[in-house]
Specification:
CATH topology of the largest domain: Spore Coat Polysaccharide Biosynthesis Protein SpsA, Chain A
Helix content: 25-40%
Shape: globular
Number of domains: 2
CATH architecture of the largest domain: Alpha-Beta Complex
Distance between the termini: 43 Å
CATH superfamily of the largest domain: Spore Coat Polysaccharide Biosynthesis Protein SpsA, Chain A
Number of helices: 6
Number of strands: 10
Largest sheet: 8 strands, mixed
Radius of gyration: 18 Å
Strand content: 25-35%
CATH class of the largest domain: Alpha Beta
Strand order of the largest sheet: 3-2-1-4-7-6-10-5
Oligomer: single chain
Length: 198
């Protein structure tokens, strides 16, 4: 059975954090919470689940915050969750089975992100695969019997686990403001982000 660190970045999530943590707390072996400036009871709620709570000054960079959270993980795999996500009982069962049977060569597990259209999100589809579970340390493997090379692409498994996304608000305004700030600072958007901004 694999071991899992849950890594989350949060800010002012007192209304939804308990719901999220209750749905995963017994499926993971470690809970890491990175708070980026909460002014509500978020950190107090988190303290009921873990003592691994870290403060990080917000700098408009979700990747930097997630990388910081990942750097605190100690288990074999890292499960990245947002506070507005929930696992149903059926998907908790699937997650537990995955934890018990995951093949060691799997480096990334994708899970279906569901309920996309329910709360006025900007998505055009209700369900999509997203990478959610990551091997913390990657092992490089040589391939090919001749002219051998190191495998560069990760081994990805598309699971049948569905995460229910239950946001309480639309984040489009926040995201557009961040896009504009990045552009104003002279940063080039990646092709992926440019398409999303458009």
């Amino acid at each position: 059975m694999i071991t899992i660190s849950l890594c989350m970045i949060v800010k002012n999530e007192e209304r939804v954090l308990k719901r999220c943590l209750d749905s995963v707390r017994d499926l993971v072996d470690e809970i890491i919470i990175v708070d980026t400036g909460s002014t509500d009871a978020t950190k107090r709620i988190a303290a009921g689940y873990t003592d691994k709570i870290y403060d990080l000054t917000w700098n408009d960079d979700f990747s930097a915050a997630r990388n910081f959270a990942f750097s605190k993980a100690t288990k074999e795999y890292i499960y990245s969750a947002d506070a507005d996500e929930v696992l149903s009982e059926e998907n908790r069962r699937r997650f537990r089975l995955l934890k018990e049977t995951l093949l060691p060569e799997i480096e990334i597990v994708q899970m279906k992100y569901g309920n996309q259209l329910q709360n006025g999100t900007v998505y055009n589809f209700d369900e999509e695969y997203r990478p959610k579970l990551f091997r913390r340390l990657r092992s490089f493997v040589w391939e090919e019997p001749i002219h051998e090379t190191v495998r560069l692409e990760p081994v990805v498994y598309d699971s049948d686990i569905v995460i229910t996304h239950m946001p309480e608000q639309n984040h489009a305004g926040r995201d557009l403001a961040n896009f504009r700030k990045q552009i104003a600072q002279g940063r080039r958007l990646s092709r992926r982000l440019y398409g999303m901004y458009a």
